[in-house]
Amino acid sequence: MNRRKVTVDGISACGKTRLIAALSEYATAHYHGKVKPQEYFSGEPSPITSIEIQSPESGLIDFWENSYSTYGRLTPLAYPKTTLVLFCFALEYVDDTRWEVENRVDYLISKKSPKGKDASLILVGCRNDLRKKQEDARSTKTLTKASEQLRQYAKKNRLAGYFECSAETDENIAELLRTVVGILFLGDTGDSTRKHRKIGSSKCIVL
Ligand SMILES: Nc1nc2c(ncn2[C@@H]2O[C@H](COP(=O)(O)OP(=O)(O)OP(=O)(O)O)[C@@H](O)[C@H]2O)c(=O)[nH]1
Ligand SMILES: [Mg+2]
């Protein structure tokens, strides 16, 4: 069975663990998926969530969370042999963290990157429900403007995708998983030949 590693990295406490849980739940319900029991890693909880899917391809996805708060000692193992990086940030703090996101992704796509040069990278904005609530309460669009700049950054740097999701409402979880499965098992790539296309609403773009 094909086995692929996906590194889930990003800003601290932005929603990485919940994103993996939402993707796992969706894969179980719609890809005939099965979440493998958690293994322990030298006595510590494992940063790996393994999901076996049966359709459209059969394969095993290992989501490896790079969390400094939970799995600090294991962070050097997060990138080697990864096929895809989901780099996450929280959309309700995007105005404060945009520069950190760009700096860290610049490094991940540079020659010094700990990921292999063929590994793709998708930018994932998490907690879109909270962003919407905040903007509604303040009647502003400052967060939307900041996230638009990240979308442009993703496009300029030919990243494999840019998504705005909510693990709370499941917004764009299906679309993100479809793109992940395509890259891992169906030969979709993140190279410059990719056409700019929209999926569903303007909230989700695969570049
Ligand atoms: N409303 C809402 N809350 C979310 C969403 N995703 C995550 N959260 C909440 O945000 C908090 C942090 O989520 P985690 O998934 O633990 O974040 P993390 O990035 O794994 O955190 P670290 O591993 O500590 O870096 C938790 O209270 C989650 O329940 C979302 O889409 N909507
Ligand atoms: Mg976590």
Could you explain the architecture of this structure?
One of its GO terms (biological process) is small GTPase-mediated signal transduction. GO terms for molecular function: GTP binding; GTPase activity. The protein has 207 residues and is of the alpha/beta class. The protein has one domain (2-205): P-loop containing nucleotide triphosphate hydrolases (Rossmann fold, 3-Layer(aba) Sandwich), CATH 3.40.50. 35% of the residues lie in helices and 25% in strands. It contains six helices and eleven strands. The protein has helices at residues 16-30, 68-71, 94-108, 128-138, 142-156, 173-185, and strands spanning 2-10, 34-35, 40-41, 44-45, 48-53, 59-65, 84-90, 120-126, 161-164, 197-198, 204-206. The strands form two sheets. Strands 2-5-6-1-7-8-9-11-10 form a nine-stranded mixed β-sheet, sandwiched between helices. The model is unreliable at 191-205 (pLDDT under 50). The site of guanosine-5'-triphosphate has 17 residues, from helix 1, helix 2 and helix 4. Magnesium ion (MG) binds next to helix 1.
